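Board notes (copied after class):
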Amino acid sequence: MFAYLARRLLYAIPILIGVNIVTFALFFVVNTPDDMARMQLGVRRVTQEAIDKWKMERGYDKPLFVNDRAKGLDTLTDTIFFTKSARLFIGDFGRAEDGRDISKEIASRMGPSLAVAVPTFILGLFVAVSFALLLVFFRASRLDFLGVVLCVAMMSISGLFYIIGGQYLVSRLLRLVPISGYAAGLDAWKFLILPVVVGVVSGIGASTRLYRAFFLEEIGRDYVRTARAKGLPEPLVLFRHVLRNTLVPVLTGVVVVIPLLFMGSLLTESFFGIPGLGSYTIDAIRAQDFSIVRAMVFIGSVLYIVGLLLTDISYVLVDPRIRLE
């Protein structure tokens, strides 16, 4: 298995390089440094001198890939690609337009993002699996039909409805928790309850339908009928056999989501005023801060590859029949 993991890690290197090159092309080839300067300066009739000064202050006055004016190794290192994109591989994300260190900002904002995302992920998974097992237990009944209709209805509603509706009902009318904001320490729970509940409720519909389909496919297997023939009660059959043998497809969707927890939720953090990575990315897009956006795209790519690797490892742990060759 170690050889397999090492091979997958080696595969990740060209993937990250490709993602980095594509991202660089989107930022610097399609959108030239002169265009970036005009958008940042925000002046319709900006002079070329102001554009050149803006580019020089931020290192955008260098060639893209090859610097013919330099000598030796500097022909490749003294370029925009190396200073702005290649250095991301060593964790050097540079500085934002306001001068702040992006690495420090990411480290400080990761805590609030995890404080929202981890409880939402754990509670959402527990509620969705439990609800799906309940519908499978009462399959082909009126309760199962109503549950599926409810799931489809919840899937059809936009996530913004849950956010705005939760803020209006719980915070404005009932005044149970603050409508937005964040506080460090033990007082954070007052600001986290509503975002977590909204995140769990908004994801129940799609997750429950997916898990219900997995359980229904597994419940018709021969080993399930054999377990019933031995006299095992239906709840025990569901939990001991059906749930255990559907962990592989469940983990396919679950483990891949885990790296996204570190990235935060764009909508939730923005609407609830939580200073996490999601709101950090949204603010960077609004401010057209390309350095932050590039860093977040690169981190997202790395975390997604890590998630796929964790998925393969989890397959071996939950199903001994699977071997990583």
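Comment from the instructor: The chain has two domains: 2-90, 102-318. Residues 102-137 form the longest helix (36 residues).
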